């Protein structure tokens, strides 16, 4: 996984996916990304916000299109 951790404005550490990761995930239907642990999530609507992650139980799973609108993809 190419995602990296960064510190938010509030001081919380979370993951940020790369644009390449987003492109790979977009090949599959209904994929998302957990900002808390960096896990990929399936069964996620494109505009999903704060779904619960199956890996870490944090409400930090977002759909790919929502991540793009939020400007959270980083260049590889």
In short:
The chain is an alpha+beta fold. The chain is built from two helices and five strands; from the N terminus they run ββαβββα.
Give structural notes:
With 76 residues, the protein is α+β, with helices and mostly antiparallel strands. The chain has one domain (4-70). Helices cover 20% and strands 24% of the residues. It has helices spanning 19-26, 64-70; strands at 4-7, 13-16, 31-34, 40-42, 61-63. A 3-stranded antiparallel β-sheet has the order 4-3-5. The longest helix has 8 residues, at 19-26. The radius of gyration is 11 Å and the shape is globular.
Question: What are its keywords?
Answer:
single chain; 76 residues; alpha+beta; three-stranded antiparallel sheet; two-stranded antiparallel ribbon; 2 helices; 24% strand
């Amino acid at each position: 996984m190419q995602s990296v951790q960064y510190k938010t404005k509030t001081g919380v550490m979370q993951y940020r996916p790369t644009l390449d990761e987003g492109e790979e995930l977009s090949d599959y239907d209904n994929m998302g990304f957990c900002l808390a642990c960096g896990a990929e999530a399936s069964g996620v609507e494109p505009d999903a916000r704060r779904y619960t992650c199956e890996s870490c139980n944090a409400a930090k799973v977002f759909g790919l299109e929502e991540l793009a609108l939020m400007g959270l993809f980083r260049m590889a």
